[in-house]
Write a structure and sequence with these properties.
Distance between the termini: 25 Å
Strand order of the largest sheet: 1-2-3-4-5-7-6
CATH architecture: 3-Layer(aba) Sandwich
Radius of gyration: 16 Å
Helix content: 25-40%
Strand content: 25-35%
Shape: globular
Oligomer: single chain
Largest sheet: 7 strands, mixed
Number of domains: 1
Number of strands: 7
Number of helices: 5
Length: 184
């Protein structure tokens, strides 16, 4: 598997705005590739992931936010929710700048995340049903398994999305949930 050496650098306050813009562009890029502007996947502000959702994730005291750096350049970002009691951790956000796609940066990032938190028992994450690149990445590259498909016929039993309470437009509609069991 192709992997590029990346470094996870804690998000600096002076980089917050660029991190948010880069995150929104990476998510919008994927959606535009799949759908163009023909339907309602892009919100009134022209975004897939709202500023409020990203800010809530960055500001959550349980979360760790990092810039992905490769070749001395910011090429993406990661937000991790770390549960220090259960070690059941959640990949909140992972994005790679579109101009850095298909260069092994995502996989290198995932390897760095696993090395950063070797105590993890289970990793969880989710992605929209239409993000084929993401589904391929999580399942075929990183070893996750699809655990659930959230849709109108099935909603998660447990409260996965604290952000949903803060921003009711965000939530588990038509999303795949992935898990990766690290330890049994």
């Amino acid at each position: 598997m192709k992997s590029k050496k990346v470094t996870l650098v804690p998000l600096a306050s002076e980089d917050r705005e660029e991190f948010i813009r880069d995150n929104q562009w990476a998510f919008k890029y994927g959606t535009l590739q799949e759908f163009g502007k023909r339907d309602g996947h892009i919100d009134d502000d022209g975004e897939i992931i709202s500023r409020k959702t990203i800010e809530c994730s960055i500001d959550d005291p349980q979360n760790e936010s990092y810039r992905i750096v490769a070749g001395g350049k910011n090429v993406g970002g990661v937000i991790l929710k770390i549960d220090r009691e259960t070690h059941r951790n959640h990949l909140e956000i992972l994005f790679v700048s579109p101009d850095a796609h298909s260069k092994g940066i995502g996989y290198g990032t995932w390897q760095a995340i696993e090395a950063l938190h070797p105590e993890t028992v289970v990793w969880e994450t989710c992605t929209p049903y239409f993000e084929k690149r993401n589904i391929h990445f999580y399942v075929n590259k990183c070893g996750f398994q699809i655990d659930q498909f959230w849709c109108e016929y099935f909603q998660p039993e447990h409260d996965m999305f604290e952000d949903e309470k803060k921003d009711p437009d965000e939530g588990p509609d038509e999303m795949f949930r992935f898990i990766k069991v690290m330890k049994t």
